[in-house]
C-alpha cells in the first residue's frame, strides 16, 4: 500500500516553514494521541503516521531528500514505535519541548518549569542572478526583527514579583479525566514572575524591533525555492529569554537569456548553418564563467539534435558531482540566395 504524502498527512503545503509544520504536528498529535482516544489501536496507527511525517519534514536534510526523491529519499524509515505507548518515553526522546504543554508529567504530578521558548523563525525571499546561483556568492541583507533589549538585558524590568497564578513555576496544572495536565501559565506567560516597573525602552517586553544586517553565504548550485537556514538570526524569544529563532533564506533565481537549467543540468540552443550540418564542424560557445567550450558537430547533424557535454553543467549543491550541458542544435536555412548560390545548389541537387 502506497504511503500518504507527508505534507498531506500534516495538512500543510510544500512551502510550509518550520513553525507551520510544528503547529500542525502539535495539533494533530494532541487529537490522535492514543491515551486520548477510545479506539487506541486506530489512534496509534494515525499517531505513528503523523510522527513519521514530522520526523522527516522537521529535519532540513531529510526534508530535502524527501522533496527530491519522495519516500525513497527519506529512507522509508519511520519513527520507532515498537515499544508502544504504555507510559514509557521511548519514541519521544528526540522531540524536545514539542509536547511540553500537553504531555509533560501526564502520568505524574511534577510541576517543574519548562525551558524558555525559542523565538519565531523568519523567512526572507532573496533574488539572485542565474550566475550567482550557479557559482555561489555572499550577500548582505537587512531585516527588521526583534532583538533582546540592551537596557534591561531582556528582563523587561528590574522589579518583579512572583506570579500568584502559578506560584513562580511558570506552569499551571489542571485535571482532564484521570490525567493531570500542564500548560504554560497565562498570567506570566511562563516567566514565573510579573514585572512591577517595566523597562522604558522595551515597555516590559524584553525585546525591541530594529533593522539588522545579516551576511548570507549562497552555496553553488542553489535553485529557485532552495531554503537556506541561518541559525539564531530569527526573532528573539519572548521576553528576551530562550534562543533566537532561525532565519530562512528562500532563493529566487533570475532567468538567463541563453541558458536554462533542470536541476544540475544546463540547456541551451546553438545555431549552425546548413553547410556545417552537412559537413560537420568544430563549434565553440561561451560558458557561464566566460571560458570557451569546444565540441564537434558530426556531419549529417539534423536540426533538433541534442548533444550532451558531460560535466559541463552545474555543481550539485549536495557535493555529488556536476551536471551536464545539453546543446540543442538548430540548423539555420538561408532565406535568400544569390544567383551563383542557386546555380551551385542546382548542381549539387543533381548529385543526389
By CATH, the topology of the domain at 1-103 is Helix Hairpins
- Order of SSEs: HHHHHEHEEEEEEEEEEHEEEEH
- State the helix count: 8
Largest sheet: 4 strands, mixed
User: In angstroms, what separates the terminal alpha carbons?
Assistant: 61 Å
List segments where confidence is low: pLDDT < 50 over at least 5 consecutive residues.
Answer: 76-114
Count of extended strands: 15
Shape: elongated
Q: Strand share of the residues? A: 25-35%
Classify the helix fraction into a percent range: 10-25%
User: How large, in whole angstroms, is the Cα Rg?
Assistant: 30 Å
Mean pLDDT: 81
Give, in spatial order, the strands making up the sheet with the most strands.
Answer: 10-11-15-14
Instruction: Report the top-level CATH class of the domain at 1-103.
Output: Mainly Alpha
Return the CATH architecture of the domain at 1-103.
Orthogonal Bundle
User: Structural class of the secondary elements?
Assistant: alpha+beta
Q: What is the CATH homologous superfamily assignment of the domain at 1-103? A: DnaJ domain
Task: Give a short summary of the structure.
By secondary structure, this protein is α+β, with helices and mostly antiparallel strands.
3D structure, described in words:
- The protein has 8 helices and 15 strands.
- With 352 residues, the protein is of the alpha+beta class.
- Among the domains are: 103 residues, Helix Hairpins (Orthogonal Bundle); 91 residues, Urease metallochaperone UreE, N-terminal domain (HSP40/DNAj peptide-binding domain), CATH 2.60.260.
- The strands form 6 sheets. Strands 10-11-15-14 form a 4-stranded mixed sheet. It has a 3-stranded mixed sheet with strand order 1-9-8.
- The radius of gyration is 30 Å and the shape is elongated.
Amino acid at each position: 500500500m502506497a504511503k500518504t504524502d507527508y505534507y498531506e498527512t500534516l495538512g500543510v503545503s510544500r512551502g510550509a516553514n518550520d513553525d507551520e509544520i510544528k503547529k500542525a504536528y502539535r495539533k494533530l498529535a494532541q487529537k490522535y494521541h492514543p491515551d486520548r482516544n477510545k479506539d487506541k489501536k486506530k489512534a496509534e496507527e494515525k499517531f505513528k503516521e503523523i510522527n513519521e511525517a514530522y520526523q522527516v519534514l522537521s529535519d532540513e536534510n531529510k526534508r530535502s531528500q524527501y522533496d527530491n526523491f519522495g519516500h525513497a529519499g527519506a529512507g522509508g524509515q519511520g519513527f520507532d514505535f515498537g515499544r508502544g505507548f504504555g507510559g514509557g518515553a521511548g519514541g519521544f526522546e528526540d522531540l524536545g519541548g514539542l509536547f511540553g504543554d500537553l504531555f509533560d508529567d501526564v502520568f505524574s504530578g511534577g510541576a517543574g518549569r519548562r525551558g524558555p521558548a525559542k523565538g519565531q523563525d523568519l523567512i526572507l525571499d532573496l533574488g539572485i542572478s542565474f550566475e550567482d546561483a550557479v557559482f555561489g556568492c555572499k550577500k548582505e541583507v537587512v531585516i527588521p526583527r526583534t532583538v533582546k533589549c540592551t537596557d534591561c538585558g531582556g528582563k523587561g524590568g528590574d522589579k518583579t514579583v512572583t506570579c500568584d497564578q502559578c506560584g513562580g513555576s511558570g506552569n499551571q496544572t489542571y485535571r482532564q479525566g484521570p490525567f493531570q495536565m500542564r500548560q504554560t501559565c497565562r498570567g506570566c506567560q511562563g516567566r514565573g514572575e510579573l514585572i512591577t516597573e517595566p523597562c522604558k525602552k522595551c515597555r516590559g517586553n524584553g525585546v525591541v524591533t530594529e533593522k539588522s544586517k545579516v551576511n548570507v553565504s549562497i552555496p553553488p548550485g542553489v535553485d529557485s525555492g532552495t531554503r537556506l537556514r541561518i541559525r539564531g538570526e530569527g526573532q528573539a524569544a519572548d521576553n528576551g529569554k530562550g534562543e533566537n529563532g532561525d532565519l530562512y533564506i528562500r532563493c529566487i533565481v533570475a532567468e538567463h537569456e541563453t541558458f536554462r537549467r533542470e536541476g544540475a543540468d544546463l540547456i541551451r540552443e546553438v545555431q549552425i548553418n546548413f553547410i556545417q550540418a552537412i559537413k560537420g564542424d568544430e563549434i565553440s560557445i561561451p560558458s557561464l564563467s566566460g571560458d570557451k567550450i569546444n565540441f564537434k558537430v558530426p556531419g549529417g547533424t539534423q536540426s533538433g539534435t541534442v548533444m550532451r557535454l558531460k560535466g559541463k553543467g552545474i555543481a550539485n549543491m549536495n557535493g555529488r558531482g556536476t551536471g551536464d550541458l545539453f546543446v540543442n542544435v538548430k540548423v539555420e536555412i538561408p532565406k535568400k540566395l544569390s544567383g551563383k548560390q542557386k546555380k551551385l545548389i542546382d548542381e549539387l541537387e543533381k548529385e543526389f
